[in-house]
Design a protein that fits this description.
Length: 186
């Protein structure tokens, strides 16, 4: 069947206007936040935890990202090593790793914690994932301040205000990793 060129152009234009055909859209950069209760957001709602607040801050800066919370309360470096395939699934382009406090509480020697963190980071980087690893507690100075911690929590987990400060502290580093992932063309 012969369809005149002008009619084809009108069909395509109409389809685009009404959404029948859409140009291919770029996929958001996939970020996995991996760790223990510090990532999971113990005692705060999911939208008050670090991953959700980080996604909102990155989007406010114009980045098309999706941050997935792969934090598990009580997790350890060995636990993260065992679940890396699930915590950084195919398509992950950036990973944020904050793990080790439960290892210390359990008496795991610091060299073992360090070696496990290095193994986590190496595994992620071997897959081409940009990585930010918190080797020290980036919120240590907030732990004694009730303005930034959950009330009556002996472990002094961060509250929503504490996560706001943490996002402010880490935003530039994460944004730089997102830009590197974008340049790779993931």
């Amino acid at each position: 069947m012969f369809v005149p060129r002008a009619l084809q152009v009108v069909f395509v234009a109409t389809s685009l206007v009404f959404g029948f055909l859409t140009p291919a859209a770029a996929q958001p950069i996939q970020i996995s936040a991996i760790g223990d209760s510090n990532i999971a957001g113990r005692w705060v709602s999911p939208w008050e935890a670090y991953p959700a607040k980080l996604e909102a801050a990155l989007r406010a800066k114009g980045f098309d990202v999706h941050v997935v919370n792969h934090g598990i309360n009580g997790d350890t470096t060995e636990g993260v090593l065992a679940r890396l395939d699930a915590a950084a699934p195919a398509g992950t382009q950036v990973a944020i790793v904050w793990i080790g406090v439960n290892d210390r509480k359990a008496g795991v020697p610091q060299p073992t914690i360090r070696a496990n963190r290095q193994a986590i980071v190496a595994w992620l980087r071997a897959r081409g994932i940009e990585v930010l690893s918190f080797d020290n507690d980036p919120a240590a100075d907030m732990r004694g301040n009730p303005q930034f911690t959950v009330p009556n929590d002996p472990q002094r987990h961060l509250n929503a205000a504490g996560y706001d400060v943490l996002v402010t502290r880490t935003l530039a580093q994460v944004a730089a990793l997102v830009q590197r992932a974008q340049q790779k063309g993931h």
